[in-house]
Amino acid sequence: MKILMFTTDYLPNVGGVSAHVSGLAGAIREAGHQVMVVANVPGSEDNGGNGTPPVLRVSEHVRGIPVARGRRLQFLINMARPMIKDLRHYDLLHFHTMDPLSQMLSVIWRTRPRILTNHTSMFVADSADPRRALPWRRFFSRMDGVIATSEQLAGLTAALSSPSRHVRYIPNGVDARTFHPRVAGRPCHDRYGIRPNDGLILCPRRLVPKNGCVRLARAMQTILQRDPTARLLFAGDGPERESVEAELRAAGCLGRTIFAGNVPNPEMPALYAAADVVVVPSLIEATSISVLEAMATGRPVVASKVGGLPALVEHGRTGYLVRPGDEADIAARVCDLLADRDRRARMGQLAHRRVLDSFTWDRVAARTIDAYRGFLSCSRKHAN
To answer: In the prediction, which pLDDT does 99 show?
Structure first.
């Protein structure tokens, strides 16, 4: 098969959708199919060397300046023209975004199956509001199939789609060749001044309201009362940083916290390896590649029981699920793990095995290719 993917988030950007598209495209290519990624993200184009899929970069900016709103439609049409000529060479279009270019192509190009992967946790809120749900409903109506990365997203997507639409749940994946228990964490200990006896809590989340980082900051006071060796490291940045810092300062915990900012993807394996516990305290979450990366590296995860996270973390086996926003619950589970090295090791081993059994990119790619074939078959039947 020849697949054309569209995304507004791709390498070198740091984030879940970027990791998903690059990981999935690479695995589908390794399975013997042709993949081209069209990325509305600044960066250098890639001709597909070193086993990576070729990438075509497009942008709604000219020399770094956004195109004026009144000229944007014509600009997009001009940008899409050479692309449209090449679409006939592909078997299907796979959208990972609902940006204007994708919406335009989904309307113009109807002779090839159009697939959408619904990644976003904000869709959970949008689907409950008829006005905000309308653009999603319209976009779904133009798709021949929709893939959702959590069972919750799949159910909500199906509710906004017509009965003939096909919605499949296929989870995120992780590169188990990059994230694995043999990665050395010592470089991060040296970089961030973490001492051998420190109990390092890693929160690999952007500092935005939905991710619940303020709740983790509030839990730190209790954690430090029970374990004065605890250190907290945030790998991510965002508009809530001042609020997170304020909570930590008020509780006297700021000195035990490290803000690493947005950490490039190649540096993340060592950061997970340096951690004793990984915490994902989300208030809203579709699913999480960060959870899978932590598990693949052999680290126990404390995650909110929300969205698709319970499908990843087995409570009491590979980590713990806590009530969303419950600071006392977060603190208790983190302290339990910091106090028990053997439990951390046992849960980490089980987490790693779970990833190998269910969440490697080759397994996710195989399920996606199977979905492609199903969507292609249905599309041909409808065409006849």
So the answer is: 81
Q: What is the DSSP string of 30-44?
A: HTT-EEEEEE-S-S-
Tokens coding 122: 């904000």
Query: What percent of the chain stands above pLDDT 90?
Result: 73
For residues 91 and 3, the answer to whether their CB atoms sit within 8 Å is yes
- Looking up tokens 């050395």 gives 184
Query: Residue holding tokens 């579709």?
Result: 286
CA-nearest of 199, 279, 301, 270 to 234 is 279
C-alpha R_g of the chain: 22
Mind listing the pLDDT tens digit for each residue in 325-365? 999 999 999 999 999 999 999 999 999 999 999 999 999 99
Q: Are 1 and 92 in contact (CB under 8 A)?
A: yes
Domains and CATH numbers, the chain: 2-173+360-383 (3.40.50.2000), 186-358 (3.40.50.2000)
Q: Tell me which amino acid residue 74 is.
A: Q
Average pLDDT over residues 220-235: 98
Tell me the two tokens of residue 237.
């940045």
